[in-house]
Amino acid sequence: MYTERWIRFEEVEFHSTVDKAAFEQEHVIRLSPPDSCFFEVMRFRIRPPRNREKALNIKATMKIAGSKVEIRVEAMAAAQLEKNRGGKNTRRQIPCEDIAIRFPIPEAWIYIFREERHWGVGSVHSKKMRSGKVKNLKDRLLGTVQSSEPNLIECAIGEAKYEHVYRSLVWRIARIPEKHHVAYKAHVLRCRFELSSFDMMPDAFFPRCEVEFTMPLATVSNTVVRSVSVEQHEDSSRVEKFVRYVAKCQYKVEIDYVQCADFEVDTLNPTVNPDELMNTVPAMHQPAFQPAEVEQMHEGYRIELNDSQMDRAQDQDSSSDDDSDKGHKMPIIQIDMKNYGY
């Protein structure tokens, strides 16, 4: 790992054990680390170059066609440009690992991603999206075999399921690009479901989805540690010293919400015959009942009491048990069983 680009540190923060005066004078970070403790030595901000390509490109889309909803997420890793000492610029495959893409789900739709199991309720897991031969293709064309039910969640790589901790549909990928695979290959997550007449359409959706991943042998700021020394030690030459570069990336991506007539059609162009295009788009999903209307319907069943009536009711409730027994006698029911053969 080598770079010749100058880096300007901004908003520098140090650990309490760092000698700040030594850093300002010698530009050396000198500290006495605490024992058996993992801590952060330095934190700073930089200004990355313009038009810098992201290591992991994410495109999140939600399409709504009437009562049908499709969630689609595309992930693509880019090839990183690295420069070796004394060499030329070369394309180096630095994979993205431990990827987690969290697509927020409205609260009214959470139950769609849950299923009953033998020991309670769990989340629906994704199925592998594989292209290949279709089983019983001839019988399906003749209509003798019914087609299988479509999967709720499908992904080309990794695993996806709803995680209630994040209130999101989480897509986890171990690594992309995979071993012996090239960069700039798109991986797709697709989730399709249909709303029933009792499902509510949210007034507003979450604007962004969250992305987290790590990159080994890389740093976003191109910072390089030149040397590490250990002083005031009995045998400093036998102390194991090494530097491990890991870039932990976290950012948010805007979600595109599209209302269309068909999921297979791209976003409609409103500049060409907008009236005709809007006629082809089905109406937005409407539930069988509205909560506001139901609340207004039952508004007349409310009984309101003034202060005097409330005080009178409290006095009646505070009466003793003897008084209540005198005022309310237990009814006696007698049943004659002569005509029943007894």
Fold and architecture overview:
- With 342 residues, this protein is an alpha+beta fold.
- The chain has helices spanning 20-26, 137-142, 274-280, 291-297, 307-317, 321-327; strands at residues 10-14, 42-45, 56-65, 68-77, 80-83, 89-92, 96-104, 114-117, 120-123, 127-128, 153-155, 159-163, 168-176, 186-194, 208-216, 246-259.
- The strands form 4 sheets. Strands 10-11-14-4-3-16-15-7-13-12 form a 10-stranded mixed sheet, with no helix packed on it. A two-stranded antiparallel ribbon has the order 1-2.
- α2 links the parallel β10 (127-128) and β11 (153-155).
- The radius of gyration is 33 Å and the shape is extended.
- The protein starts with 9 loop residues before the first strand and ends in a 15-residue tail after the last helix.
- The mean pLDDT is 80.
- InterPro entries: Adaptor_comp_med_subunit, AP2_Mu_C_sf, MHD.
- Residues 1-256 form the MHD domain.
- Residues 308-331 are annotated as: Disordered.
